Amino acid sequence: MLPTMMFVIDTAGLVLRLFLLLPIYRIKVNFLDFVRYAKMMNITRQLRPSLAKALMPTAMRAMSADSKLVELTMNEKTGIATVTMNRPPVNSLNLELLQGLLKAFEGLEDDRKCRGMILTSSSPTVFSAGLDIMEMYKPKPDRVKEFWTTLQDVWLALYGSSFPTVAAINGHSPAGGCLLSLCCEYRIMCPNYSIGLNETKLGIVAPKWFMSSMLGAIPYREAELALTSGRMFSTDEALKIGLIDEVASDKADAIAKSEKFLSQFAKIHPIARKLTKLNLRHSALEWMQENKELDLNIFISFVGQPIVQKSLEKYLEGLKAKQAK
Ligand SMILES: CC/C=C\C/C=C\CCC/C=C/CC(=O)SCCNC(=O)CCNC(=O)[C@H](O)C(C)(C)COP(=O)(O)OP(=O)(O)OC[C@H]1O[C@@H](n2cnc3c(N)ncnc32)[C@H](O)[C@@H]1OP(=O)(O)O
């Protein structure tokens, strides 16, 4: 009798607390939200055994991401998903890789079992070489529009994800690669690689939202110096200025450390965590939502400039020459 009464009182309390929160943040709540909340509050043991069992995770599951460019696995026991970029040789972000990432992030957003996500790479030495320069060099009008819009959507989905995120940076991470890691809440990097927003070195300008992502990680003064000079940081330098949070000895260690970081959120109220994150990121997210079209037009006119095309051509030649040596 007493446990039943306690359960009814607990449940009423939970529902009341949820409904007090909801009008402020305009969250849709449904039964599954309640179940998540209840599970977090550790009351699933009091639910019907069949329902409690259904809530218990079982094993590691490969989820369909419909793209060989992105592998998505879910640890059913912990609810931690791993998204692995798999576009050899350097995971340069072309339209198809971005579409694969977007699909994976949106899928996880809809997956009520997802408790966190680790973003990593299948390459032994490169996390991501950033945007595929071939998408910007002599671009086809329709494709380049779709390319940039998809990048904006990937940024919105990752920077604004409701689940906690970690980048396990197991290789070099210039420009767009660094951006992806900056969208995550925590960065763990393997030794002796480089990371940074090096756009000015290519003769291009990192858009406002690239910069605001960096400003979310390091102080303004450091960001100003890094962005204007296009500086790439070694793993140790990145740790010193706070561009990364931890160093791992290798990829396996980076994943283990990522899981440890994410596991702390098991004890944190998921709605409180999510709303705190989204409130902190609100102005950058809102700017993007309201300025997608403007940002697209700036990009299109920027990459259309002959001087920008010349810079990209020179940079590509430099990469090829390096390869030929
Ligand atoms: C007011 C204006 C406002 C807004 C303007 C709007 C927009 C403009 C800004 C757009 C933002 C762009 C951000 C970017 O991400 S640009 C991309 C920057 N990336 C880089 O600088 C990285 C370049 N690559 C490297 O440094 C190295 O490749 C790397 C350290 C990652 C790995 O070195 P490794 O020795 O392992 O490999 P490589 O031999 O160098 O490369 C292998 C092959 O891959 C090709 N490659 C490398 N990177 C790219 C890339 N980013 N895109 C396309 N191709 C790439 C390289 O050429 C080699 O090719 P092959 O010779 O084998 O054909």
From TrEMBL:
CDD domains: crotonase-like. One of its GO terms (molecular function) is delta(3)-delta(2)-enoyl-CoA isomerase activity. Homotrimer. SUPFAM superfamilies: ClpP/crotonase (SSF52096). Key enzyme of fatty acid beta-oxidation. Able to isomerize both 3-cis (3Z) and 3-trans (3E) double bonds into the 2-trans (2E) form in a range of enoyl-CoA species, with a preference for (3Z)-enoyl-CoAs over (3E)-enoyl-CoAs. The catalytic efficiency of this enzyme is not affected by the fatty acyl chain length. This is Enoyl-CoA delta isomerase 1, mitochondrial. InterPro entries: ClpP/crotonase-like_dom_sf (IPR029045), Enoyl-CoA_hydra/iso (IPR001753). Signal peptide: none annotated. GO terms for biological process: fatty acid beta-oxidation. Its main location: mitochondrion. PANTHER family: ENOYL-COA DELTA ISOMERASE 1, MITOCHONDRIAL (PTHR11941:SF45), ENOYL-COA HYDRATASE-RELATED (PTHR11941). It is found in: Mitochondrion matrix. One of its GO terms (cellular component) is mitochondrial matrix. Keywords: Acetylation, Fatty acid metabolism, Isomerase, Lipid metabolism, Mitochondrion, Transit peptide. Gene3D superfamilies: 2-enoyl-CoA Hydratase, Chain A, domain 1, 6.10.250.170. It catalyses: (3Z)-dodecenoyl-CoA = (2E)-dodecenoyl-CoA; (2E)-tetradecenoyl-CoA = (3Z)-tetradecenoyl-CoA; (3Z)-octenoyl-CoA = (2E)-octenoyl-CoA; (3Z)-decenoyl-CoA = (2E)-decenoyl-CoA.
